[in-house]
Amino acid sequence: MAEQIGMTPRLLEYVRQTSLREDDILLELREATAGLPGGVALQVPAEGGQFLALLVRLTRAAAVLEIGTFTGYSTLCMARALPTHGRLVTCDITDRWPSIGAEFWKRAGVDGLIDLRVGDAAETLEKLLADEGPGVFDLVFIDADKANYPRYYELSLELLAPGGLVVVDNTLFFGRVTDPQFTDADTAGIRELNARLRADERVDLSMLTMADGITLARRKDA
Fold this sequence. Notes:
Elements: H1 9-19, H2 24-34, H3 39-42, H4 46-58, E1 63-67, H5 73-81, E2 87-92, H6 98-107, E3 114-118, H7 121-132, E4 137-142, H8 149-159, E5 160-169, H9 185-199, E6 203-208, E7 214-219
Parallel strand pairs: 1-2, 1-4, 2-3, 4-5
Antiparallel strand pairs: 5-7, 6-7
Protein backbone atom coordinates (compact mmCIF):
# COMPACT_ATOMS: atom_id res chain seq x y z
CA MET A 1 0.00 0.00 0.00
CA ALA A 2 1.27 3.49 -0.84
CA GLU A 3 2.36 5.82 1.93
CA GLN A 4 0.32 8.91 2.77
CA ILE A 5 0.89 11.52 0.08
CA GLY A 6 1.33 15.21 0.78
CA MET A 7 -1.67 17.36 -0.12
CA THR A 8 -0.37 20.04 -2.44
CA PRO A 9 -2.57 23.00 -3.48
CA ARG A 10 -2.82 21.44 -6.95
CA LEU A 11 -4.03 18.12 -5.56
CA LEU A 12 -6.49 19.84 -3.23
CA GLU A 13 -7.92 21.77 -6.15
CA TYR A 14 -8.25 18.48 -8.06
CA VAL A 15 -10.16 16.95 -5.13
CA ARG A 16 -12.52 19.90 -5.06
CA GLN A 17 -13.07 19.87 -8.81
CA THR A 18 -13.81 16.15 -8.91
CA SER A 19 -15.87 15.62 -5.73
CA LEU A 20 -17.14 18.86 -4.19
CA ARG A 21 -20.85 19.63 -4.62
CA GLU A 22 -21.14 23.01 -2.95
CA ASP A 23 -24.26 24.91 -4.04
CA ASP A 24 -24.81 28.67 -4.11
CA ILE A 25 -26.18 28.94 -0.55
CA LEU A 26 -23.20 27.13 0.95
CA LEU A 27 -20.77 29.06 -1.22
CA GLU A 28 -22.26 32.41 -0.20
CA LEU A 29 -22.07 31.49 3.49
CA ARG A 30 -18.47 30.31 3.14
CA GLU A 31 -17.48 33.52 1.34
CA ALA A 32 -19.25 35.67 3.94
CA THR A 33 -17.41 33.80 6.69
CA ALA A 34 -14.05 34.14 4.96
CA GLY A 35 -14.34 37.93 5.25
CA LEU A 36 -14.55 37.78 9.05
CA PRO A 37 -11.52 37.97 11.39
CA GLY A 38 -10.13 34.43 11.50
CA GLY A 39 -12.98 33.27 9.32
CA VAL A 40 -11.00 30.98 7.05
CA ALA A 41 -9.17 29.28 9.92
CA LEU A 42 -12.26 28.78 12.08
CA GLN A 43 -14.65 27.50 9.41
CA VAL A 44 -14.63 23.87 8.29
CA PRO A 45 -13.49 23.60 4.66
CA ALA A 46 -16.14 22.94 2.05
CA GLU A 47 -15.06 19.32 1.59
CA GLY A 48 -15.18 18.90 5.37
CA GLY A 49 -18.78 20.08 5.45
CA GLN A 50 -19.67 17.67 2.67
CA PHE A 51 -17.96 14.86 4.60
CA LEU A 52 -20.01 15.67 7.71
CA ALA A 53 -23.22 15.55 5.69
CA LEU A 54 -22.22 12.15 4.33
CA LEU A 55 -21.55 10.86 7.85
CA VAL A 56 -25.01 12.01 8.97
CA ARG A 57 -26.56 10.10 6.10
CA LEU A 58 -24.36 7.01 6.53
CA THR A 59 -25.24 6.75 10.22
CA ARG A 60 -28.90 7.55 9.49
CA ALA A 61 -28.72 10.09 12.27
CA ALA A 62 -31.96 11.77 13.26
CA ALA A 63 -30.54 13.70 16.20
CA VAL A 64 -27.23 15.57 15.87
CA LEU A 65 -25.33 17.58 18.47
CA GLU A 66 -22.77 20.18 17.37
CA ILE A 67 -20.36 21.78 19.83
CA GLY A 68 -19.10 24.99 18.22
CA THR A 69 -21.32 26.71 15.67
CA PHE A 70 -19.35 29.74 14.47
CA THR A 71 -21.28 30.99 11.39
CA GLY A 72 -23.06 27.69 10.91
CA TYR A 73 -21.57 26.31 7.69
CA SER A 74 -21.15 22.82 9.16
CA THR A 75 -24.53 23.25 10.85
CA LEU A 76 -26.16 23.81 7.49
CA CYS A 77 -24.37 20.88 5.87
CA MET A 78 -25.49 18.45 8.59
CA ALA A 79 -29.03 19.83 8.91
CA ARG A 80 -29.61 19.30 5.19
CA ALA A 81 -28.63 15.65 5.61
CA LEU A 82 -31.19 15.03 8.36
CA PRO A 83 -34.57 13.41 7.76
CA THR A 84 -37.59 15.71 7.87
CA HIS A 85 -38.31 14.71 11.48
CA GLY A 86 -34.68 15.23 12.56
CA ARG A 87 -33.13 17.84 14.82
CA LEU A 88 -29.74 19.45 15.28
CA VAL A 89 -28.76 21.07 18.56
CA THR A 90 -25.82 23.42 18.04
CA CYS A 91 -23.91 25.19 20.84
CA ASP A 92 -21.91 28.40 20.81
CA ILE A 93 -20.64 30.81 23.44
CA THR A 94 -22.28 33.76 21.62
CA ASP A 95 -25.06 34.31 19.10
CA ARG A 96 -22.96 36.90 17.23
CA TRP A 97 -21.57 34.50 14.63
CA PRO A 98 -24.46 32.00 14.42
CA SER A 99 -26.77 34.91 13.61
CA ILE A 100 -24.92 35.20 10.29
CA GLY A 101 -25.69 31.60 9.43
CA ALA A 102 -29.33 31.81 10.53
CA GLU A 103 -30.28 33.65 7.32
CA PHE A 104 -28.72 30.88 5.24
CA TRP A 105 -30.37 28.14 7.32
CA LYS A 106 -33.71 29.78 6.57
CA ARG A 107 -32.97 30.12 2.86
CA ALA A 108 -32.09 26.42 2.75
CA GLY A 109 -35.36 25.53 4.49
CA VAL A 110 -33.75 23.78 7.48
CA ASP A 111 -34.00 26.48 10.15
CA GLY A 112 -36.87 24.57 11.75
CA LEU A 113 -34.57 21.61 12.41
CA ILE A 114 -31.87 23.69 14.15
CA ASP A 115 -31.89 24.48 17.88
CA LEU A 116 -29.19 27.02 18.78
CA ARG A 117 -28.07 26.96 22.42
CA VAL A 118 -25.98 29.97 23.52
CA GLY A 119 -23.70 29.80 26.54
CA ASP A 120 -20.90 27.73 28.04
CA ALA A 121 -20.84 24.49 26.05
CA ALA A 122 -20.12 22.18 28.98
CA GLU A 123 -23.05 23.69 30.89
CA THR A 124 -25.26 23.26 27.83
CA LEU A 125 -24.31 19.58 27.57
CA GLU A 126 -24.88 19.02 31.26
CA LYS A 127 -28.34 20.60 30.95
CA LEU A 128 -29.14 18.35 27.99
CA LEU A 129 -28.18 15.35 30.10
CA ALA A 130 -30.34 16.55 32.98
CA ASP A 131 -33.33 17.39 30.79
CA GLU A 132 -33.24 14.54 28.27
CA GLY A 133 -31.04 11.86 29.78
CA PRO A 134 -28.22 9.86 28.17
CA GLY A 135 -28.13 8.29 24.73
CA VAL A 136 -30.34 10.79 22.88
CA PHE A 137 -28.03 11.78 20.00
CA ASP A 138 -26.90 9.71 17.03
CA LEU A 139 -23.94 11.88 16.01
CA VAL A 140 -21.89 14.53 17.81
CA PHE A 141 -19.52 16.96 16.09
CA ILE A 142 -16.94 18.65 18.34
CA ASP A 143 -15.31 21.80 16.95
CA ALA A 144 -15.05 24.36 19.74
CA ASP A 145 -12.36 25.64 22.15
CA LYS A 146 -9.65 22.99 22.18
CA ALA A 147 -8.66 23.26 25.84
CA ASN A 148 -12.03 21.79 26.82
CA TYR A 149 -12.08 18.97 24.27
CA PRO A 150 -11.56 16.23 26.90
CA ARG A 151 -14.58 17.48 28.88
CA TYR A 152 -16.73 17.86 25.78
CA TYR A 153 -15.82 14.34 24.68
CA GLU A 154 -16.85 12.73 27.98
CA LEU A 155 -20.17 14.56 28.06
CA SER A 156 -20.76 13.78 24.39
CA LEU A 157 -20.21 10.08 24.96
CA GLU A 158 -22.87 10.13 27.67
CA LEU A 159 -25.31 11.87 25.34
CA LEU A 160 -24.52 9.52 22.45
CA ALA A 161 -26.64 6.46 21.73
CA PRO A 162 -24.92 3.06 21.46
CA GLY A 163 -23.56 2.76 17.93
CA GLY A 164 -23.51 6.54 17.61
CA LEU A 165 -20.59 8.52 16.22
CA VAL A 166 -18.44 11.28 17.71
CA VAL A 167 -16.60 13.38 15.11
CA VAL A 168 -13.76 15.52 16.48
CA ASP A 169 -12.21 18.27 14.36
CA ASN A 170 -8.65 19.68 14.50
CA THR A 171 -7.08 16.63 16.15
CA LEU A 172 -3.74 17.38 14.43
CA PHE A 173 -4.05 21.09 15.34
CA PHE A 174 -1.82 22.64 12.68
CA GLY A 175 0.85 20.03 13.45
CA ARG A 176 1.42 21.46 16.93
CA VAL A 177 0.54 18.15 18.61
CA THR A 178 3.99 16.81 17.68
CA ASP A 179 5.96 19.95 18.53
CA PRO A 180 7.09 20.14 22.20
CA GLN A 181 7.52 23.90 21.88
CA PHE A 182 3.74 24.27 22.01
CA THR A 183 2.54 24.03 25.61
CA ASP A 184 -0.57 26.22 25.40
CA ALA A 185 -3.89 25.03 26.82
CA ASP A 186 -5.46 24.36 23.40
CA THR A 187 -2.63 22.16 22.17
CA ALA A 188 -2.52 20.38 25.52
CA GLY A 189 -6.26 19.75 25.31
CA ILE A 190 -5.93 18.15 21.89
CA ARG A 191 -3.00 15.99 23.00
CA GLU A 192 -4.91 14.86 26.09
CA LEU A 193 -7.97 13.92 24.08
CA ASN A 194 -5.96 12.06 21.44
CA ALA A 195 -4.23 10.01 24.13
CA ARG A 196 -7.53 9.34 25.87
CA LEU A 197 -9.20 8.23 22.67
CA ARG A 198 -6.36 5.82 21.86
CA ALA A 199 -6.88 4.07 25.20
CA ASP A 200 -10.70 4.27 25.30
CA GLU A 201 -12.16 0.79 24.90
CA ARG A 202 -15.68 2.21 24.85
CA VAL A 203 -15.25 3.28 21.23
CA ASP A 204 -14.02 2.12 17.83
CA LEU A 205 -11.50 4.64 16.55
CA SER A 206 -9.96 6.13 13.43
CA MET A 207 -7.99 9.35 13.02
CA LEU A 208 -8.09 10.73 9.48
CA THR A 209 -5.37 12.98 8.06
CA MET A 210 -7.99 15.11 6.32
CA ALA A 211 -7.68 18.89 6.62
CA ASP A 212 -6.45 19.61 10.19
CA GLY A 213 -7.15 16.08 11.41
CA ILE A 214 -10.58 14.53 11.93
CA THR A 215 -11.11 11.71 14.41
CA LEU A 216 -14.07 9.35 14.28
CA ALA A 217 -15.04 7.51 17.46
CA ARG A 218 -18.00 5.11 17.33
CA ARG A 219 -19.55 4.23 20.65
CA LYS A 220 -19.66 0.47 20.93
CA ASP A 221 -23.04 -1.19 21.19
CA ALA A 222 -22.21 -2.87 24.50
